[in-house]
UniProtKB/TrEMBL annotation:
The lineage of its organism: Bacteria, Pseudomonadati, Pseudomonadota, Gammaproteobacteria, Pseudomonadales. Keywords: Membrane, Transmembrane, Transmembrane helix. It is a multi-pass membrane protein. It is found in: Membrane. This is Yip1 domain-containing protein. Residues 7-183 form the Yip1 domain. It comes from Marinobacter persicus. One of its GO terms (cellular component) is membrane. InterPro entries: Yip1_dom.
């Protein structure tokens, strides 16, 4: 089962990457049975915490999002995560030939590498049940660092290239990931200006 890889990537990543390469799952199946499920963790947890728990501002003032606003922002976040994983997987496949890997007509390995490297970020979504900005920032920063390490570790195994080439490849992919992140932030700002801005209520 594809979800079993999520735990293997934390306990024995090298063996797990080798297993993922052998599976060579189609992007569609990988998305439906892995990305669609794990990417939903953060939006669901964020909806629960922001709409029902809220967070304190100042002297015991509880702030929440309205139900509609929480749903809107959670759905948009979910869609952004799905698009981001696909874009990163596409970039991995698109740059493959440049760094000595085989470019695939159907980017199975590229999408798999992107999806499984994002596993720590997917699971970090559980931290959103505790809506404290400093706590969430620490958890997601740690998850991002481990996700980046997973990508560097998995590149030579999944894409079948030398480690020296994989290092340059990985740096390029981290740059792409940062561009995707900045693009989603810019997209959020645009959407907030066209009617999707968060709506707050006092709890």
């Amino acid at each position: 089962m594809l979800l079993s890889h999520a735990f293997g990537l934390f306990s024995h990543p090298d063996q797990e990457w080798a297993s993922i390469r052998k599976e060579h799952e189609t992007p569609t199946r990988l998305y439906i049975t892995y990305v669609v499920i794990l990417a939903a963790i953060a939006p669901i947890c964020a909806y629960i915490s922001t709409a029902h728990f809220g967070w304190e501002v100042g002297a015991d003032r509880l702030i929440k999002l309205t139900e509609i606003s929480a749903v809107q922002l959670s759905v948009l976040t979910y869609l952004a995560m799905l698009v981001g994983v696909f874009a990163l997987g596409y970039a991995i496949n698109w740059m493959a030939r440049t760094y000595g890997a085989k470019e695939e007509h159907v980017p199975s390995n590229g999408i798999a590498l992107a999806a499984y490297s994002c596993t720590p970020l997917f699971l970090a979504g559980f931290a959103l049940l505790y809506p404290e900005p400093w706590f969430n920032a620490i958890v997601f920063l740690a998850a991002a660092c481990y996700g980046a390490w997973l990508m560097f570790d998995g590149l030579p195994i999944v894409m079948g290239i030398e480690k020296e080439q994989a290092e340059l490849y990985g740096v390029s992919l981290l740059t792409v990931a940062l561009v995707i992140l900045v693009s989603t932030r810019a997209g959020s700002a645009i959407l907030w200006n066209v009617g999707f801005a968060p709506a707050f209520v006092s709890g």
